[in-house]
Amino acid sequence: MKRTDRARTWALGIWSTAALLYLFIPIFIVVLFSFNNNKGRFNFTWHGFTWRHWAHPFSNPDLATALKNSLEIAAISTVIATALGTFMALALVRYGFRGRGATDMFVFLPLATPEVVLGAALLALFLTLNVNTGFVTIVIAHVMFNISYVVVTVKARLEGMDQYIEEAAMDLGAGVWATFWRVTLPVIAPGVASAALLAAALSVDDYVITSFNAGQTLTFPLFIFGATRQGVPPEVNVLATGLLFVVLILLALNVVVQRARGRREAAVAAVPAVVGAPANA
Amino acid sequence: MLRLSLRRRRQLLPYLFLGPGLVWLVVFFLIPILNQSYVSLESGNADIGYSFSWNWSVYSDAVSSYHTQFTRSLIYAGAATVIDLIIAFPLAYFIAFKAGRLRNFMLLLIVLPFFTSYLVRTVSWQLILSDNGWVVDRLRDVGLVSSNGRLLATSTAVIAGIAYNFLPFMALPLYVSLEKIDRRLIEAATDLYASRATAFRKVTLPLALPGVFAGSLLTFIPAVGDYINALLLGTPNQYMIGNVIQSKFLNILDYPSAAALSFMLMGVILIGIAIYARLLGTRSLTEAAAA
C-alpha cells in the first residue's frame, strides 16, 4: 500500500514536471534566438551566439514606435480599467441591490466572448458611427475587455476581507470616502495591484481585438504579426524576453511587499490572484 | 439642499460605484454585440455600401458556405480542450495535494510563459515544428514522421498550438476546485475501507467536477474563436471560423456576413454557458474565472 502510494506520487510529480517543461519550450526558444547571430532576414536556424541584438533592441524604428504605443496604451487603459473595475467590484461585493446577480453575469460575459467577436463587433460600431479608428479606439477597446478581469480579480480579494473593520471605521465617524481611502483600499491594495498588472499584461499582449480597432496605429503585437510574413527580427525576441523579465520583477516585488506587510495569508491568496486569468490574448 | 440620510446614501452608493464601468461595458460591449445583429441583416456590397433590409439570407448563406469551418472549429477546440484536461488534471492534482511548499511556485510556473506575447509564443512553435527543424528531423529518424512528412501546416500542429496557448485556462480552475476539497472527506472514505482508487472515483472526482466543467468551458470558448494558431501553424485547409470572420471583416469588407457569423459563434457559446449554468449555477464559473 505505502509503496504504490509513493510510486503514484512519483508518477504525478514526473507528469507535472514534464507538463511544466512543455510550457517553457517555446519560451526557451524565444530567449535562445534573441542571442542568435542570424544571417539575412530570417531568424529560423542557429548561427552562433551574439550580443548584437541586445545591444541595439530599438534599431528598427517601426518596432520602437510600436512598443512605445503599446506601453502608452497599456498605461492609460490600465489606469481607467482598474479604477472603474475596482469600484464595480466594491459595489458587487459590499452592497445588496436589485439586479446584483444579473450585473454579476453581465460583467462576466465579455470574458466568455471570443476576441474575434469582441473586436469585430466594436469595429462595426465604430464604422456605423463613422468614428476613425486609431490610438483612442484601441484604448477604448482595451479598457472594455480589461474591466471584467479587474472586477473578478478585485472581487476575489474583497470576498476574503473582513467586512467588520469597514463597519468599525464608519461607526467611529469615518465617512464613506474616508473609509474607502483609509481602510478598504489599503487592505485590497494587493488585489488591485494584481488586477492592474494583469490588465497591463493583457493590454500589451492583445493582438486580435487591437487588429480590428487600430486603424493606422502600430502596436507591438501588430508589428510582430506583420513581421511573421517576412521573418520576425531577433529584436522582437530581445524585447519579448525583456518584457518577461519586467513582469517577473513586478511579480517578485508584489510578493516581497506583501511579505513585508506581514500578512502570510495574503501572500498565499495573492499568487492565484496574480496568476489568475492569464492572457486571453 | 436636502441632506440625504445615511441610509439613503448607502442605497445610492452601489449604483454610483457601478455606474461608470457599467456604462463603458454597455456602450462598448453590449451595444456592439446587438449592433452586430442589425449589421448582419443589411445588404449591399463593399463598393456601394450597406443598408438595412431584413436580409435573412445572410444566415442561410453563411451556414451553407462555412459549415466546414464551423464544424472544424468545434472539433479543433474540443480536441484541444480534451488534451488540456488530460495534461492539466494530474498537474493540478499534484499542486493541490502533493506540492506542499512548492505550491505557489508551481502555480507561478504555469502562468509565467503566458506573460510572453501570444504571437511570439506561436511563432516560436512555428520555428520548433518547421520542416527542417530539429524536432521533425528526430521524428523522421525514428519513423514517426515519414521522410517527406511535416508537422507544420497540419491540423495536428493547429490543435497542439491551441492546446498549448489555453492550458492555464484549464489548469487554474481545476486547481481551485481540487484545492477546496476537504481532505477529511477523502480520509473518511479510506477509513471506511474504500481503496485509494475508489476514494478518488467516488469522492475527489465528483467534488472536482465543477472545476472540470469550468476549465473546459474557459478553454473551449477562446479556442473555438481562435484564428491565430490556424493562421500561423496551419494552411487554409485548417482555417477556422475565426479566420473567416477576420478576413471577411478586414480584407473582403463583407460586413453583413462577418457579423452574421460572429453572431452565430456567440450564439453557440451562449448555449454552452446556459447549459453549464443550468447544471452547476453561474457562481462556480465566475469564481473559476477569478482564479
Strand content of chain B: under 5%
* Whole-number mean pLDDT of chain B: 81
What's the SSE pattern of chain B? HEEHHHHHHHHHHH
How many angstroms does the end-to-end distance of chain B come to? Answer: 46 Å
Mean pLDDT across residues of chain A: 81
Largest interface: A-B, 102 and 93 residues
By DSSP, the count of extended strands of chain A is 0
Broad CATH class of chain A: Mainly Alpha
CATH-defined architecture of chain A: Orthogonal Bundle
What does the overall shape of chain B look like? globular
Radius of gyration of chain B: 24 Å
- Total domain count of chain A: 1
Q: Helical stretch count of chain B?
A: 12
CATH A-level architecture of chain B:
Orthogonal Bundle
CATH superfamily (homologous) name of chain B = MetI-like
Q: Biggest sheet of chain B: strands side by side, in what order?
A: 1-2
Compact overview of the structure:
The complex is a heterodimer of chains A (281) and B (291). Chain A is an all-alpha fold.
Keywords for this structure?
heterodimer, A: 281 residues, mainly alpha, MetI-like fold, 12 helices, 0% strand, B: 291 residues, two-stranded antiparallel sheet, 2 strands, 3% strand
Q: Would you kindly provide a written description of the structure presented here, covering whatever features stand out?
A:
The complex is a heterodimer of chains A (281) and B (291). With 281 residues, chain A is mainly α. Helix content of chain A is 75%, strand content 0%. Chain B has 291 residues and is mostly helical. Chain B has one domain: Orthogonal Bundle (MetI-like fold), CATH 1.10.3720.10. In chain B, strand 1 (42-45) and strand 2 (49-52) form a beta hairpin. In chain B, helix 2 (57-97) packs antiparallel against helix 8 and helix 8 (196-225) packs antiparallel against helix 11 (255-280). The model of chain B has no long low-confidence stretch (mean pLDDT 81). The chains are: A mainly alpha (281), B mainly alpha (291). At the A-B interface, helix 1, helix 3, helix 4, helix 5 and helix 6 of A face helix 1, helix 2, helix 3, helix 4 and helix 6 of B.
